Request: fold
Amino acid sequence: MREILTFGRYYKRKRRKRVRKVPLGLSGFTCPNIDGRVAKGGCTFCENESFAPNLARTKKFSLNPDSIDNPLLSKQLAEIDFQYRGTAAHYKALGYEEFLAYFQAFTNTYAPLDTLRRLYEHALAQENCIGLSIGTRSDSVTEEILDYLVDLSASHEVWIEYGIQSVFDETLERINRGHDSKNVEEWIKRSKDKGLQVCGHVIFGLPGETRDMMLSTVEKAIEWGIDAIKIHPLYVVKNTALAVEYQKGRFTPISQDEYIAVLVEAIKMLPPQMMVQRVSAGIGDSTLLAPAWCADKNAQLRAIRKALRNEGFIY
Reply:
């Protein structure tokens, strides 16, 4: 049996300690695909202001790379304190010893570098924080930001996480992604050329995609040199453009059997040294429209682990 290199196994071997990510979501962050810089409305599967009228009526300050001032900085620093300390304390009680501050919600490089410096370094100053994992889009990074992350990586664990989703431009256009696959390839390769650790996010079950297309995305991501991968199924939540497609019968979510079958084939393609950070996703509340099997991530994982074990893998 071959052990899949999960996040936990990777850091247990590297640091001899149990390490976990602490997710952070900060006020003021948004996305160039929401604020109109590259597109409007956001990705079709993303719940955002364009499809939530109550939010759309609320005037809020949002950062972008050209913001002159950041009136939310003090609030953001306090949010890091509150979210990190509370979550880390919970994880510490479960036996975890060190943490990565995971800037997760929205696009976490979509702000002036001065703001990013303050936020990232404040997170790194938290107790037992050994590094950062920064979720972003390939159209929202710059050479200056990458160089700064390289400087941080000299003394900390630093990961940059790019949403690849698909390498097919027709899919990216259909989901209103706002950039093409060439843009993702370019910035992943630039990040790797600078020595940064890169995690790529891939979605299975996107509108119009076949099994072969999903596997081609994984194949390309491997070629681009990513160090880790996250794979998850596409699910439909309320207040999204995808929900409208689903309700009109224009989109059929991937079944659990189909998802697990293509996931197993994808895992077989990965180099043994590639970290697999995620293989499931879902949401267990009333906002989920479909598929029903995405309501229980624990059940997902049990089915996935069983299928992988049948093929000689331990997840």
Remarks:
- The chain is about 40% helix and 20% strand.
